[in-house]
Amino acid sequence: MMEESMSIPFVKMHGTGNDFILFDNRNRNLNDEQITSLSKKICQRRFGAGSDGFIALQFDETKEADLVMVFKNPDGSDAGMCGNGARCFGGFAVTLGAPQTFTFRVHQNIYKAVVRDHNALITFPLQTKVTELILEGEPLLSVYTNTEHIVCSTVQTELNNIQMLSEKGRRYRFHEQFEPKGTNVNFIYGLGKNRVSLQTYERGVENLTYSCGTGAIASALGWHHLQQAGGGSYQYQIEVQGGTLTVHFSFQEETSLYENILLEGPYSFVYEGFFYV
Questions:
Q1: Catalytic position from the list 43, 88, 152, 212
Q2: 82 noted as active-site residue
Q3: In sequence order, what are the residues at sequence separation of 6 or more whose Cβ sits closer than 8 angstroms to the Cβ of residue 70?
Q4: Of 43, 82, 88, 152, which one is the catalytic site residue?
Q5: Are the folds of 7-125+268-276 and 130-265 the same?
Q6: Regions of the chain with pLDDT less than 50
């Protein structure tokens, strides 16, 4: 257990409106149970600093990567990966002395970050496919981006109906078809050949968020699939409430595999402070 009245120094950041609390755990050495407990408190918007997630920066004891990113949702649950969190993690690490290009591990996966001028490019160690499915009579797409996502194509007017998206997102997120983990739910509208508008209902946050990085990847691949755009290398612009993300990828028609996946976008520092436990 953490000591009473312990103060935790932290930094508040956001990546296109997806906000996070980050702290340097290299010397404090909080364990996973302590990090989980802290995330439930500090992420609260009324009684904590408030954020969509909590990120601890640590040394990689396995020496497989330069650093480790430990990510917790506001409810304390783990996430397979958080793309926007990773971009903020990249910017945070550089302020602590990391080079502008470095590797980091999330669970067993090793990513690469390239950080320049408040912009971060994250390389995903990922090959994935888009799978078609039917849920409640609606055609959907399932796309694994090192965490679980489904993609729902909708019309532009529905994309602005926050209440409807929240209710539908919550229902699909907890649907028995995706048990036991559940899923993140992405609603997309195609604005052009390489441009998509996106709203994401995030598991663990249990609400719509201003942006979701892994959701942006899932949506880019889903939109490519819906267009049957064919093999090659692509760059898609994903418009979210908090700004614009860029997803780079290639597609192999012979294997139906998406690979060479990168997520790019801005990050911002908001403030720094101390949280008293």
A1: 212
A2: yes
A3: 25, 32, 35, 55, 56, 58
A4: 82
A5: yes
A6: 1
Name 41's Cβ contacts closer than 8 Å, sequence gap at least 6: 47, 48, 275, 277
DSSP E strands in 79-176: the ranges are 101-106, 109-116, 119-123, 130-135, 138-143, 149-153
Fold of 7-125+268-276: Diaminopimelate Epimerase; Chain A, domain 1 (3.10.310)
Classify domain 130-265 at the CATH class level: alpha beta
Whether 212 is a known active-site residue: answer: yes
**Residue 154 confidence (pLDDT):** 96
Q: Please name which of 166, 237, 227 lies closest in space to residue 200, comparing C-alpha atoms.
A: 166
Residue 15 belongs to what H/E stretch? strand 7-15
Domain boundaries, the chain: 7-125+268-276, 130-265
Residue 2, pLDDT score = 54
Q: What is the per-residue pLDDT for 4?
A: 54
Query: What's the predicted TM-score (pTM) here?
Result: 0.95
String of DSSP letters for 210-261: S--HHHHHHHHHHHHHHHT--SEEEEEEEEETTEEEEEEEEEETTTTEEEEE
107-124 pLDDT per residue, tens: 999 999 999 999 999 999
Angle at 76 between CA 19 and CA 187, to 5 degrees: 55
Please, is 207 exposed, middle or buried when counting C-beta atoms within 10 Å of its C-beta (0-12, 13-18, 19+)?
A: middle
Give kind and range of the element (H or E) at residue 207: strand 207-209
What pLDDT was estimated at residue 80? 84
Q: Quickly list DSSP for 151-174.
A: EEE--HHHHT-HHHHHHHHHHHHT
- Give CA 89 to chain center in angstroms: 11
Q: What is the rounded distance in angstroms from the CA atom of residue 119 to the CA atom of residue 84?
A: 11
CA–CA distance, 81 with 91 (Å, rounded to integer)? 17
